[in-house]
Every structure is written in structure tokens, then in C-alpha cells.
Amino acid sequence: MEKLHIPVLLSEVLAGLNPQPHESYLDLTAGYGGHASEILDVTQNYKDSVLVDRDEFAVKYLKQKFPPTIKIKHTDFYSAVLQLFECGMTFDMILADFGVSSPQLDMESRGFSFKYDSPLDMRMDQTQARTAADVVNKSSERELAEIFVKYGEIPQGRAHMLARIIVHHRPINTTRELADLIKTRLHYHSKIHPATLVFQAIRIVVNDELGQIEKTLPLLPKLLNKNGRLGIITFHSLEDRLVKDFFKEASSFGEESTLEIINKKPITAESEELVINPRSRSAKLRLAQKRH
Q1: What digits encode the pLDDT tens for the residues 198-244?
Q2: Residues 182 and 52 in one domain
Q3: Average per-residue pLDDT for the chain
Q4: Is residue 114 domain-shared with residue 240, that is, in the same domain?
Q5: What is the SS3 assignment for 47?
């Protein structure tokens, strides 16, 4: 099958999770199976492993790629965790890669990137109703400014200016229209396109990305077997801060701690990977192990 997505930090994930024959595996953001295929090649345990993704296109790909004995769930990772918890399932390894997949960015129709002139969409799960166009065109000026500050970490003054510009030029229907509006109206020098953080903020809101992470993290130790390993990959500081704080709290009770942190500092991509996959430059991997 055609390889649609290069998994980030693959060798580091394999070293950290240390898969062994017959172990069970849960991938909460399986995407196009890059990490999963390497791990399952070692474990050969398909019947006790679960792959999850909220993207219908990814789920169809996974069903073609893997044997029918593996469980594949088309849902968001928080809902999947609740379902698995209710079923009493536990795993030797859990991985969550919170990044946007390359196909989502590269498929023009998905509206994640301003490289293309696409409808403002940005939904990871295309069955949900709310799109980026709804956020841009239906939020008040104050709500937009709050979104840009909270999820784009844009300074308040600039966030309010951006919100005002957007409200005064609505309706805005395409990614290019929004990006060009911001670029022409916002005069400041930056290494990144001035719309980058705005797009990040809108995408996070559309997909409730941080809310999903906050609700999911406390449940993950309950899905791990004793000595089970947990790996989480993040791509921006808002995500990483949530994971870092959770790991710190879960490991702070001495012998009573739920988790033991494997790597004190996040693992980042080596220079060789950055050449092959530039999108890995912002990826951070944190690892922990279940104590009891």
C-alpha cells in the first residue's frame, strides 16, 4: 500500500515502548498505521490490540492495511478510552500522537492548510457539524480574540486586532481568503506566516483538541497493565504542558504513584529525521510506565 504518512520519532517510540512478542497495544491516534505497523510486527498480537482514529479516511486505510482480527474504532480518543474502560480492556502499551496527520494537511479539500484555496473546514472527524467556517463567521469579535489568545498564544493586542479585521470582512469562506486577509492587514515581521497561529487556534477549537487531551489523560493509567508503557507525542506547547503536568502529578506520590516517568525531558527528533520529515521539528515524546 502507498505510504501516506511518515510517523514521527519512530525509532524513539520503539525504544521507549519496547514492544515484546505477544504484548497488547492501544494506538489512540493510529492515523495511517506508521507506528502501529512497526510495533505489531514485533508483538504479532493483533487480536488483543486496538487502533483508534476519528478520521474516516484514516480508518478506511487502516482496515485495508491490517488483518481483520485487530479492532479498529472510528471515534475520538476520549470516547474510545471510555468504551475500552467500560469493557475492562487493558494494554501493555499505549501510544497517542496528538499531531495533525500529513494527509489532513496535504488534502486540499480538508481545509487545514492555507497552501490551498480550500473551504474552511479543519474537521478531523468529518461527521461532526461544526467547521472552521462556523468558528470564523459565527463567533463574536470577543470570542475570536479569546480563541486566538488561548489557543494560538497570540498577544492580546494583536489577537483583538485580528478578531476585528475578521469580523469586518465576513463572510470568509476559504483558507486562502482568511490567510491573505491576515497577511495584508497585519504588518509585522515573523519567520512564520502571520496566519499560522490563527489557523492553529481555530483548528484546536473545531476539534476540541485540548479538551479531549485533558479528559483523556487521567484515564490512561487505568487502561495500562502493570509495567505497561505509555508514550505521548505532542506538537505545540499547549499540548505538551498538559502532558508534562499530568505525568508530574501521576508520578509525585512516591511508592503510591500511578506512573513512573521514563524520560525526564521530552525526546525530540534527531537531525537525520528532520531532513526526511521536516514536520517532526516540533514533535516531543514523553514516556511513562505503570507502577502498580
Answers
A1: 999 999 999 999 999 999 999 999 999 999 999 999 999 999 999 99
A2: no
A3: 92
A4: no
A5: coil
Return the SS3 of 1: coil
Cα 126 to Cα 148: distance, rounded to the nearest angstrom: 23
pLDDT classification of 1: cutoffs 50, 70, 90:
very low
Instruction: Give the integer Cα–Cα distance in Å for 195 and 180.
Output: 8
DSSP code per residue over 93-135: EEEEE-SPPHHHHH-GGG---TTS--BS---SSTTSS--HHHH
CB burial class (10 A; 0-12, 13-18, 19+) of residue 253?
exposed
Spell out a b/e string for 198-236, using b for 16 or more CB atoms within 10 Å of the CB, else e.
bbbbbbbbbbbbbebbebbbeebbebbeeebbbbbbbbb
Query: 3 in a domain, yes or no?
Result: no
State the Cα–Cα distance between residues 84 and 101, nearest whole angstrom: 24
- Please count the other Cβ atoms lying within 10 Å of the Cβ belonging to residue 281: 12
Q: How confident is the model at residue 187 (pLDDT cuts 50, 70, 90)?
A: low
**Per-residue CA distances from 277 to 6, 50, 62, 158, 264 (Å):** 7, 27, 22, 32, 25
Query: How many structural domains does the chain have?
Result: 2
Residues 138, 23 share a domain: no
Residue 1 lies in a domain: no
pTM: 0.91
Q: Which domain holds residue 196?
A: 110-208
Q: Is the CB of residue 29 less than 8 Å from the CB of residue 97?
A: yes
